[in-house]
Amino acid sequence: MKKIKLLLGGLLLATSGTLRASQVPQETLEFRNTFLGAASQTHSDAELLELNYLPGSELLSSPQVRSAEEFLGRLSSRLEKVAPRDLYSLGASTPANLKSNAEIEAPLRKLGSTFQERLTIVIVPGVFGEIIKTRAFEDIFSLRKSAYRDFVSAQFAKQKSVIKDSHYSLADLKDIEAPLQSLIHVSSIDDQDGQALVNVILFDTPTMSLESMGDIRLRAGTFTRRLEKFFSVVGQPKNIAFVGYSRGAAVALEMLARAKEQQATWLKNTRGLVSLGGVIYGSELADDAMNAGYETLVPAAATQLQLLKVFRDSLQEVGDSGFVVRHAIMISNTLKWANFLRQVIQLNFPEKEGSIWSRVTSTVSDLYKFIEENFKPAAAVDVKSILSLLVKVGIETFELTHPVATYDLNIKRLRVLVDEVIMAVTQLSTQERLEWWSQNILPTDGINYYAVAATMVEPEYQTSAGYNNELYDDHMLNKNYKDIVRISEMRLNDSQVATYKARFWPEINLILNPSQPPMKTQFLGVLGTHHWGLALRVVNETAAGKVKNPYNPFPRAALLKALASTVAKDVTPEPMDEE
Q1: CB atoms closer than 10 angstroms to residue 400
Q2: How far apart are the C-alpha atoms of 565 and 568, rounded to whole Å?
Q3: Residue 126 above 80 pLDDT?
Q4: CB contact set of 476 (below 8 Å; sequence gap of 6+)
């Protein structure tokens, strides 16, 4: 084990006075040693202290209250005094004993050497993942070689027919079938000999399948069905762990709750669930969009959602109307479209409303310029990538090459899409998440619930360890970070979720649902990057050659390996069968 003292030099800031390393749980320090040990192969000692902060008592101790709302309120009040650099300072002033690669891999090897025995991580992706080209943990899934991928391909090749599953298609307004292998992506974390240490599975969400939106319970059912089909082909693993990223944490929790009800056979082999930047108790941005509990400090979110609802309800279908009525309805709908776009633009760009409006309503060339100018503050975004997605959705989903023939169908498609977006936002609100906890019971036998949160720091403190300020992603999320601070005065947030709402608090769960058996939970710590950086290397792609590094530099592969090692360490191996 490598021992290093992380020195700050002139960077050490005064902390709030209540942060003490001695109060940090052993499992948090242990995970830090594991993660930084894995990350040390690609990052310098100076960069490591920017990757993993240590939480102090404000993020660790539970308020003594009687209601969940008061619990969260007390946490919010005391955390308003804490800055991200306080957590950074505590971590940077606390020596780390970095684990070697052999020490990190030892718990993974102890589980066994077969694919069934190795830990199988099931990644549940986040909200709106279907409109992002990059997959969660693309760093792992884009590897050219994977022992587990080869094994899975061989198992599927043995099947007499193509194994399929259904997914919704907005274009068809119904479910369609697709090969299961296109709906579940696989890879592995292999050792230096090319042997799989960790099997990794990711649920894919096809474009405009609405599987990264909509009702969480329905999506959990879809993913569970696919997982069970997948296991029927490759064999049921003996050691399973879920990693729920962002909204995926809520979906993964739903999967386990339903598995308990339905007595799913794979549940007995489930060892853990990791919430990675998960929306455990709600998101301030979702609350603001629902206008729940906050003054209108960031008006665009709540107002745009209301505008979307009004716009959805106002559109008329032409049906079998005659020529005059048909065209009158189409003109009316066009004016409603124009008014909706004008209102959205005015909300987001009030100081430029006139000039932008004239460009948006002119030609495609002017629209290209509009996107290029307004998406350029932090980087040279690949405008062609953005437009290609818009064209893909427009032509393949809304059939805009035949706008008259598909007119009513497009209104129906739009209504479905708007409903699913609103549902997705609504279910991530604090009220909805607390309601979920009050109505569901999670399995606890042999299962640990882990949480990893993150927080951004102010732009002047952002370094190349966890940020890439050349990317438009960072520009967008810096704005979101400031929005949450304005909404809630909560500086500990990752741009989407407040840090204290991204960890498990068993006390809240007991208050909300006294029938919930005690959960074994571990808060593994706070990472130094934004919400997307935890799992996505890029969202808004940059044009080739425009920036030195087109990706977020946070070490996601090291993070996943550290999480796998942490889960495996807590698994008690099954006794050997006697001969």
Answers
A1: 13
A2: 5
A3: yes
A4: 540
- Rg of the chain in Å (alpha carbons): 24
What residue ranges do the domains of the chain occupy? Answer: 289-426
Residue 323 burial by Cβ neighbours in a 10 Å radius (0-12, 13-18, 19+): exposed
CB 410 within 8 A of CB 398: yes
Structure tokens at 429: 């609100």
* CA atoms within a 13 Å half-sphere pointing along the CA-CB vector of 33: 20
Q: What's the pTM?
A: 0.89
Using CA atoms, how far apart are residues 535 and 464, in angstroms rounded to an integer? Answer: 17
Token pair recorded at residue 183: 């709906």
- The token pair at 403 is 């706008």
Q: What is the DSSP letter of 397?
A: I
Structural contact between residues 539 and 473, judged by C-beta atoms closer than 8 angstroms: yes
- Cα–Cα distance for residue pair 205/188, rounded to 1 Å: 20
- Interatomic CA distance for residues 375 and 441, integer angstroms: 44
Percent of the chain with pLDDT over 90: 64
By CB atoms closer than 10 A (0-12, 13-18, 19+), residue 465 is: buried
Distance CA 289, CA 283 (A): 10
563 DSSP 8-state letter? H
Helix ranges (H only) for 363-518 are 364-374, 383-392, 407-426, 430-439, 472-488, 506-512
| Greatest distance between any 2 Cα atoms in the chain | 85
Cα–Cα distance, 306 to 290 (Å, whole number) = 9
Q: Can you tell me which residue has the tokens 């427009």? A: 394
Report the alpha-carbon distance of residue 371 to residue 380 in Å, rounded: 11
For residue 392, pLDDT beyond 90: no
Residue type, 122: V
Query: Which residues make Cβ contacts (< 8 Å) with residue 165, sequence separation at least 6?
Result: 177, 178, 180, 183, 225, 226, 229
Note whether 223 and 255 are within 8 A (CB).
yes
Q: What is the DSSP pairing of strand 240-245 with strand 270-276?
A: parallel
Q: How many C-beta atoms surround the C-beta of residue 421 within 10 A?
A: 18
Per-residue pLDDT for 400 more than 70? Answer: no
The CB-side HSE value for 121 (13 A sphere, CA atoms) comes to 32
DSSP 498: B
Contact 271, 282 (CB under 8 A): no
Residue 357 scores a pLDDT above 80 = no
Question: Could you tell me which residues are beta bridge partners of residue 240?
Answer: 120, 270
| SS3 of residue 479 by DSSP | helix
Residue 184 near residue 204, CB atoms below 8 Å? yes
Give the C-alpha separation, 418 to 401, whole Å. 22
> What tokens were used for 123?
């990644």
